[in-house]
């Protein structure tokens, strides 16, 4: 158990925003049932979840394999997205940005635009069924050739008015520096695509500095190892970079030894812009409501902290200002702010 949440409030009914959740790490058992796989709960957890403590980020990434294998057809992608939105709604999420790497869903013969058609079909179905809103972030992968990643940028541009809200740099941070993908994200900026990038998880401050200098994201996925450098923390704050923090995920992959040593509370107290996210709802397994209970138990976070960080998530969401205003009003009403 990462942290004992006994006696903490149930946050399920509270409205929430999630900016960092991976589709292929969040395949639900209901989706598999709809696809004809009657897998039971115990077998589902054995196959699709990672150990509570992994030896490394790469061990964690290997646990994603079974989910990715299951998401190689158009029906699977559509149903997985639909069911993820339903799970988000059950968790009280009112807006989410869901990310995935289109290239990893082509083993069954789908073209990139066919992948997008399936995912956006599921997105539309899930939004209609639940009333929540979501946007898509397309991931370029550090270990893929830059020419292949450029295709992801062009794909995001083609689908921008059909669900895509931005692009991401993801993958093996420690083994693949960001420099190889500089021209990929130069192209994203040329197309005015909003950019986030994974950094400061499997590697430290130098990796963050490289991403900030060469990729120029508006947000950083994780970013928690910035805590190792006071100068870097000050720069992140001065540049108003938003950190998509995923505490339980960081502990699961061994970035920090336990919840008490995770820097999210220290970063919050220093005034950094950050949001709380699950990263992987199935591989973890985790809900945002459970993550909030852990933060409440470990650091004494209450309504004020949760509302503030949800409002920061909205402020840095890749959305038009009018949509942000509506979400902010719902958060304030729902948290009693």
TrEMBL record:
GO terms (BP aspect): adenosine catabolic process; hypoxanthine salvage; inosine biosynthetic process
Necessary cofactors: Zn(2+)
One Pfam family hit: A_deaminase
SUPFAM superfamilies (UniProt xref): Metallo-dependent hydrolases
Alphabetized UniProt keyword annotations: Hydrolase, Metal-binding, Zinc
Enzyme class: hydrolase
GO cellular component, one term: cytosol
Record-linked InterPro entries: A_deaminase_dom (IPR001365), Ado/ade_deaminase (IPR006330), Metal_Hydrolase (IPR032466)
UniProt key word Zinc: yes
GO molecular function, one term: metal ion binding
Domain Adenosine deaminase, chain residue ranges per copy: 15-331
EC number(s) from the headed UniProt entry: 3.5.4.4
Family to which the UniProt record says this protein belongs: Belongs to the metallo-dependent hydrolases superfamily. Adenosine and AMP deaminases family.
Protein name, entry field: adenosine deaminase
Organism of derivation: Pleomorphomonas diazotrophica
Gene: add
């Amino acid at each position: 158990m990462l942290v004992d949440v006994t006696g903490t409030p149930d946050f399920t009914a509270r409205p929430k925003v999630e900016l960092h959740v991976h589709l292929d790490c969040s395949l639900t058992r209901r989706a598999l049932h709809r696809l004809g796989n009657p897998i039971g709960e115990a077998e589902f957890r054995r196959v699709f979840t990672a150990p509570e403590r992994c030896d490394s980020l790469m061990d964690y990434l290997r646990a994603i394999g079974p989910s990715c294998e299951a998401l190689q057809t158009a029906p699977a992608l559509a149903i997985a997205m639909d069911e993820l939105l339903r799970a988000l709604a059950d968790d009280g999420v009112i807006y989410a940005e869901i990310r995935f790497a289109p290239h990893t869903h082509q083993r069954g013969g789908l073209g990139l635009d066919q992948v997008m058609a399936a995912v956006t079909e599921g997105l539309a179905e899930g939004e209609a069924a639940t009333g929540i809103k979501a946007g898509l972030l397309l991931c370029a992968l550090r270990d893929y050739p830059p020419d292949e990643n450029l295709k992801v940028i062009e794909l995001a541009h083609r689908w921008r008015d059909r669900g895509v809200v931005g692009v991401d740099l993801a993958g093996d941070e420690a083994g693949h520096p960001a420099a190889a993908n500089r021209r990929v994200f130069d192209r994203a900026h040329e197309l005015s695509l909003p950019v986030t990038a994974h950094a400061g998880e499997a590697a430290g401050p130098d990796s963050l500095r490289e991403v900030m200098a060469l990729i120029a994201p508006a947000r950083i996925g994780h970013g928690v190892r910035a805590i190792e450098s006071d100068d870097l923390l000050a720069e992140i704050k001065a540049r108003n970079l938003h950190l998509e923090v995923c505490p339980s995920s960081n502990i699961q992959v061994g970035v920090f030894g336990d919840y008490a040593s995770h820097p999210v509370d220290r970063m919050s107290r220093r005034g950094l812009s950050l949001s709380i996210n699950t990263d992987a709802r199935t591989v973890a397994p985790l809900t945002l409501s459970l993550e909030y209970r852990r933060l409440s138990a470990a650091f004494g976070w209450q309504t004020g902290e949760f509302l503030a960080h949800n409002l920061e998530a909205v402020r840095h969401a890749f959305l038009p200002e009018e949509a942000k205003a509506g979400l902010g009003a719902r958060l304030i009403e729902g948290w009693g702010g």
